[in-house]
C-alpha cells in the first residue's frame, strides 16, 4: 500500500493475468500525448480521445475557468476562427449600450464550455468521440457570421441575396479541416484521423459536426435515427430552440448590456436528461421543477430582444447602415468599368458578397472602411452619420398581438393580419423615399406557437410528460400566469433624416404629421393599433 504507483505496477508487470494489466491501465495517465504504461496501443485518433485532456485554460467573465481541449486549440489558432475576434456579437447595439462590444470569439468559447457541461449529466453512456464532435460543433457553430453578425444576414437579404449563416458555418469549418489536414505535426494528424473516422456507417465525425451545426443532416431529416435525435438538439435545437447557443448568449449579453438575468444555466444543465419520448424518440427532457426557470429564460430572451437586439434606436442605426450598403452597391454597379474603383469593393460587396472568400475577408472594420472610402459620396455620408450617432428619426409604431393559440379563429385572423401588413409595408417602402416602415416580431423563439407545446419534462420518479400549453387541462399553472402574448408584431415608421436641421421647420412638422396619419390609417386597415415606444 506504501509503494509508489510505478513501483506497484512493476510488481504486476510480468504477471500472466491480463486482468491485472487491465486493472492498472486506467490508473495510468497520459503525458505529452504518449501512453506511458499499459498493454493497449490504440490508433492515433483513439489515443487522442482516451483522455481528451485539456491543454489550455481560459478565464471567462461568464463561466469562469474554461478548459480548452487540444482539438479546440487547433481550430482556434486558424485564421478562419480568429476573424471572430473582429465581429461584434450585437452589431450596432453598442451605439445604444456602450458596453455591448463583445465579439463572436468569446461566445464561441462559451458554447464549447456549455457543451462540455451538458455532456456530463445527459449522456454518460455516449462515446467520447461523439461528445468531442459535439463540443467542436458548439465551438464552430457561428463561423459563418459576417460583419456585424446577424445584421449582415439581414442586409444581404434586403439586397435579394439568400444567405444563411449555418450553411456558411459548415463551409468555413470544412475549410479549417482541410487546412489542418495539410499539416504534418502529430496533433494535426490525430485531428484529421478523428474527422475521417465513422461514428455510424457512411457517417464520419466530420459529417456529424456539420450536421450538428445545421441542427440535422442537410436536407434529409430521415437520416436521424430516433434514438439519436437528442444529439442534434444540443447546439442547434430546431424543435424547441433550447440549446447551448441560447444558454451562453443570454447570460453573456445580459452581462455586457447591464440587464438583469435570473436564469441559472448551470442548474438547468445539471438536471437535463435524455429520455424516451412519444414517437420512439430520445429527446432532451427538462426536470418538471425547472420548467419555471425555462419560462424565465423565454421571457428574458424576449425582453432582451425588445430592450437591446431590436431596440427602437438600434433598428434606426441599422437602417442607416442598410441604406449605406444599398447606396454602395448602386455606385459600384454604375462605375463597375471605372479603373479607379476599388476592385475589392466590387468583388466583396457587389459580385460575391455571399461567397466563402468574401466572408473570410470581411470584418466589421473592413466593411466600414470600404463603405467610407470606396463606395461613393452617398455611402460615405451615411457612414459619417453612424460615426456621429445620427440615426433616423422614429415617428410612430403600431402593433398587434396573439394571446393564445387555443382559439383557432383568433389564430387565423392574426395570420391574415400578418400577411396583409407585409404587403402594406412592402408597398409603403416602394412608394416612399423620405420614410421607411420596418416590421419586427417579438415572440418566444417558436413563432406564433405556444413555447411549451414541444417541451417535455420528467418528474422525480422518472415519468415523462409533455408541457402542453393552450388547450390542455393539465397544463402548468405558472405558464398561463407568466406567458402573456405569445407573438407580437410591431411596425415602426422612421424618417430618413439623420439629425440634419430642417430648412423649413414648419413644413417638416407638417410632413411628419401627415406621414404619421397616413401610416396609422394604412396599418389600421390591417388590424394594427397605435402603440407607444
Automatic annotation (TrEMBL):
Mind telling me what this protein is named?
Answer: HD domain-containing protein
In terms of CDD domains, this protein maps to: HDc (cd00077)
Q: Which family does it belong to?
A: Belongs to the SAMHD1 family.
Q: Which GO terms describe its cellular component?
A: nucleus
Supply the InterPro entries for this chain.
Answer: dGTPase-like (IPR050135), HD/PDEase_dom (IPR003607)
Query: Known PANTHER family for this protein?
Result: DEOXYNUCLEOSIDE TRIPHOSPHATE TRIPHOSPHOHYDROLASE, DEOXYNUCLEOSIDE TRIPHOSPHATE TRIPHOSPHOHYDROLASE SAMHD1
Domain of life where this protein originates: Eukaryota
Please give the Gene Ontology molecular function terms for this protein.
dGTPase activity
Q: Which GO terms describe its biological process?
A: dGTP catabolic process
Amino acid at each position: 500500500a506504501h509503494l509508489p504507483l510505478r513501483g506497484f505496477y512493476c510488481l504486476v508487470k510480468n504477471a500472466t493475468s491480463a486482468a491485472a494489466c487491465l486493472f492498472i491501465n486506467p490508473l495510468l495517465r497520459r503525458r505529452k500525448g504518449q501512453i506511458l504504461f499499459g498493454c493497449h496501443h490504440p490508433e492515433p485518433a483513439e489515443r487522442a480521445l482516451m483522455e481528451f485532456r485539456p491543454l489550455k485554460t481560459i478565464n471567462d467573465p461568464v463561466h469562469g475557468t474554461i478548459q480548452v481541449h487540444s482539438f479546440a486549440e487547433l481550430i482556434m489558432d486558424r485564421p478562419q476562427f480568429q476573424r471572430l475576434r473582429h465581429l461584434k456579437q450585437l452589431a450596432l447595439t453598442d451605439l445604444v449600450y456602450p458596453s455591448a462590444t463583445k465579439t463572436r470569439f468569446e461566445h464561441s468559447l462559451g458554447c464549447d464550455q456549455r457543451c462540455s457541461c451538458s455532456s456530463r449529466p445527459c449522456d454518460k453512456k455516449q462515446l467520447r468521440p461523439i461528445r468531442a464532435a459535439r463540443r467542436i460543433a458548439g465551438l464552430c457553430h457561428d463561423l459563418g457570421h459576417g460583419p456585424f453578425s446577424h445584421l449582415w444576414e439581414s442586409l444581404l437579404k434586403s439586397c435579394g441575396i439568400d444567405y444563411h449563416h449555418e450553411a456558411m458555418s459548415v463551409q468555413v469549418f470544412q475549410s479549417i479541416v482541410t487546412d489542418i489536414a495539410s499539416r504534418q505535426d502529430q496533433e494535426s494528424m490525430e485531428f484529421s484521423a478523428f474527422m475521417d473516422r465513422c461514428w455510424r456507417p457512411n457517417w464520419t465525425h466530420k459529417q456529424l459536426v456539420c450536421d450538428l451545426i445545421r441542427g440535422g443532416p442537410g436536407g434529409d431529416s430521415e437520416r436521424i435515427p430516433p434514438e439519436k435525435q437528442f444529439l442534434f438538439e444540443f447546439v442547434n435545437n430546431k424543435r424547441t430552440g433550447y440549446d447551448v447557443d441560447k444558454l451562453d448568449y443570454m447570460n453573456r449579453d445580459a452581462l455586457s448590456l447591464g440587464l438583469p438575468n435570473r436564469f441559472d444555466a448551470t442548474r438547468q444543465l445539471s438536471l437535463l436528461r435524455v429520455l424516451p419520448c412519444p414517437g420512439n424518440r430520445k429527446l432532451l427532457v427538462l426536470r418538471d421543477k425547472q420548467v419555471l426557470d425555462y419560462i424565465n429564460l423565454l421571457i428574458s430572451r424576449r425582453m432582451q430582444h425588445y430592450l437591446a437586439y431590436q431596440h427602437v434606436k438600434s433598428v434606426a442605426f441599422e437602417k442607416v447602415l442598410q441604406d449605406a450598403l444599398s447606396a454602395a452597391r448602386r455606385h459600384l454597379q454604375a462605375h463597375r468599368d471605372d479603373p479607379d474603383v476599388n476592385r475589392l469593393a466590387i468583388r466583396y460587396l457587389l459580385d460575391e458578397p455571399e461567397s466563402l472568400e468574401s466572408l473570410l475577408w470581411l470584418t466589421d472594420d473592413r466593411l466600414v472602411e470600404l463603405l467610407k472610402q470606396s463606395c461613393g459620396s452617398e455611402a460615405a455620408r451615411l457612414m459619417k452619420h453612424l460615426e456621429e450617432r445620427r440615426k433616423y428619426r422614429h415617428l410612430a409604431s403600431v402593433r398587434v398581438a396573439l394571446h393564445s393559440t387555443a382559439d383557432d379563429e383568433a389564430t387565423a385572423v392574426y395570420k391574415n393580419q400578418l400577411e396583409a401588413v407585409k404587403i402594406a409595408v412592402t408597398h409603403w417602402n416602394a412608394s416612399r423615399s423620405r420614410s421607411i416602415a420596418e416590421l419586427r416580431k417579438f415572440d418566444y423563439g417558436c413563432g406564433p406557437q405556444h413555447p411549451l407545446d414541444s417541451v417535455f419534462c420528467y418528474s422525480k420518479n422518472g415519468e415523462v410528460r409533455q408541457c402542453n400549453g393552450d388547450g390542455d387541462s393539465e397544463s402548468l399553472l405558472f405558464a398561463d400566469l407568466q406567458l402573456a402574448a405569445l407573438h407580437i408584431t410591431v411596425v415602426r415608421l422612421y424618417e430618413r433624416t439623420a439629425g440634419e436641421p430642417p430648412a423649413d421647420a414648419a413644413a417638416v412638422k407638417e410632413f411628419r404629421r401627415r406621414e404619421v396619419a397616413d401610416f396609422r390609417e394604412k396599418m389600421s386597415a390591417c388590424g394594427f393599433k397605435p402603440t407607444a415606444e
